[in-house]
Structure formats: C-alpha cells, structure tokens
C-alpha cells in the first residue's frame, strides 16, 4: 500500500535529516541562484522547524514580496500571508506564521519543504497533504513554480506516486539544483 510505504520513507527521512542535516551555506547559495530569475515575483517560503533546510537567508535576498504559509484547518489548502521578515505568531503543528492583519497573497514561486524527494520531482512532506492540495489549486488558477528545498541526504531512489501528488518543478539541495525531466 502506497500510504504505508510513504509513511515508512517519511519516518526514515525525517530521522536522517535530524541526524545528519547538511551544508546550510550550500542551501543558501543554491537557493539564491535558483530564485534569481524570479526577481519581482511573489515568493512563498517557510519558517524552518525540526532540522529543515533553512530558506530564510535566500528569502531575505529576494527582491519581491514575501509570504509564509498558514494552516487554517485540517484537509484544506494552505493560505499565504505577506511577511515583513519579522512578525510571527505560533500556528498549529509547531509552525509559525504572520498574524491576521497581514494581507493574503497568492504566491507565484513556492519554496516547498520536504521530508524526502526523488530525481523525478516527487516529494513527501509531513503527510498532511497540505502542499498537494495547495499546488493543485494554484496550478488550476495559473502558472506557479514549486521549488523543493532539502539537503542532498534526503534524496531517495524513488517515491511511490499517488493520484493527488503534485510534482516539483525544481529541487534545490546543498549540493545541486535538480530539474526533473518533463514527461
Ligand atoms: N516549516 C514548515 N512550515 C510548514 C510546513 C512544513 O512542512 N514546514 N507545512 C507543510 O505542509 C505546512 C504545515 N504542515 C504540517 C503538517 C503536519 C505537521 C506535523 O507535525 N504532523 C504530525 C502529525 C499530526 C497529526 O496528523 O496529528 C507529525 O508529523 O508528527 C507539521 C506541519 C505549512 N507550514
Ligand atoms: N488534492 C487533494 N485532495 C484531497 N486529498 C488530498 C489531496 N492531496 C492530498 N490529499 C490527502 O492528503 C493525505 C496526505 O498525502 P501525502 O502522504 O502525499 O502527504 P505529504 O505530501 O507528505 O504532505 P504535505 O503535502 O503536507 O507535505 C493523503 O491521505 C491524501 O488523501
């Protein structure tokens, strides 16, 4: 069963990430390079937790509006609030997000946190399906670019794909920028 296989991959990848991490300078350098062509566009990032690769320095170097994801409930797409680079309040599952007065934005470029990924652009997150639901809606409404961010150590040979899975357009690691071959 794919969900069980994914759960096992997720648990292993999260444990490995906490244990070994990676080269944060490489993350910042490669992510800043990957974002350069998108100067001026609305960029969503994330507030890192649990040993995730840290997108904040590269976000700070982006010349354009920034936003962060907000979890507003179970099994619903994320919303995104404009972020001034400072103001945060605690959200569910250990997340942090901009408080309500910040306007809602629709990101054109998303930095997507990963538990594990493969070279074809398939990903596993924490299992809430939040980014799958969110990318489905954003892609239905128009073009957006999903950039997965992870340490190279989070790569696995192959992730089982389910019907609702949304693929990444690019994966940035501390070692590499990976552009999956289209199909
Ligand atoms: N830094 C960061 N922010 C993010 C995400 C992320 O992966 N990383 N998200 C990416 O989607 C969204 C938050 N989604 C999350 C969904 C579940 C869990 C989580 O801890 N789940 C529990 C199980 C919870 C349950 O089912 O009761 C767990 O993994 O132990 C965390 C974040 C939005 N913000
Ligand atoms: N577009 C969707 N519509 C309805 N349900 C969905 C959709 N996308 C994902 N789901 C549900 O979300 C659950 C989690 O999916 P999955 O294991 O792929 O999560 P994940 O990709 O690790 O999580 P995340 O996207 O939050 O990082 C699945 O049980 C699936 O049924």
UniProtKB/TrEMBL annotation:
Alphabetical list of InterPro entries matching this protein: FTHF_cligase (IPR002698), FTHF_cligase-like_sf (IPR024185), NagB/RpiA_transferase-like (IPR037171)
Protein origin, superkingdom: Bacteria
Cofactor: Mg(2+)
A GO molecular function held by the record: 5-formyltetrahydrofolate cyclo-ligase activity
Reactions accelerated catalytically: (6S)-5-formyl-5,6,7,8-tetrahydrofolate + ATP = (6R)-5,10-methenyltetrahydrofolate + ADP + phosphate
Keywords: ATP-binding, Ligase, Magnesium, Metal-binding, Nucleotide-binding
Keyword Nucleotide-binding attached: yes
EC number of the protein: 6.3.3.2
Top-level class of the enzyme under EC nomenclature: ligase
Family recorded in the similarity comment: Belongs to the 5-formyltetrahydrofolate cyclo-ligase family.
UniProt-recorded name of the protein: 5-formyltetrahydrofolate cyclo-ligase
């Amino acid at each position: 069963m794919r969900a069980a296989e994914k759960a096992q991959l997720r648990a292993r990848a999260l444990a490995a990430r906490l244990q070994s991490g990676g080269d944060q300078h490489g993350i910042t350098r490669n992510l800043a390079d990957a974002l350069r062509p998108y100067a001026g566009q609305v960029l969503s990032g994330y507030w890192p937790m649990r040993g995730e690769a840290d997108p904040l320095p590269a976000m700070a170097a982006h010349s354009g509006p920034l936003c962060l994801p907000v979890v507003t409930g179970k099994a619903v797409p994320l919303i995104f609030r404009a972020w001034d680079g400072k103001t945060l309040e605690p959200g569910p599952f250990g997340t942090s997000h901009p408080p309500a007065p910040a306007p809602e934005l629709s990101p054109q470029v998303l930095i997507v946190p990963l538990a594990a990924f493969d070279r074809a652009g398939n990903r596993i997150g924490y299992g809430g399906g939040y980014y799958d639901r969110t990318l489905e809606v954003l892609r239905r409404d128009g073009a957006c670019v999903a950039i997965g961010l992870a340490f190279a150590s989070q790569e696995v040979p192959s992730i089982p794909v389910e019907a609702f899975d949304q693929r990444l357009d690019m994966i940035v690691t501390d070692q590499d920028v990976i552009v999956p071959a289209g199909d």
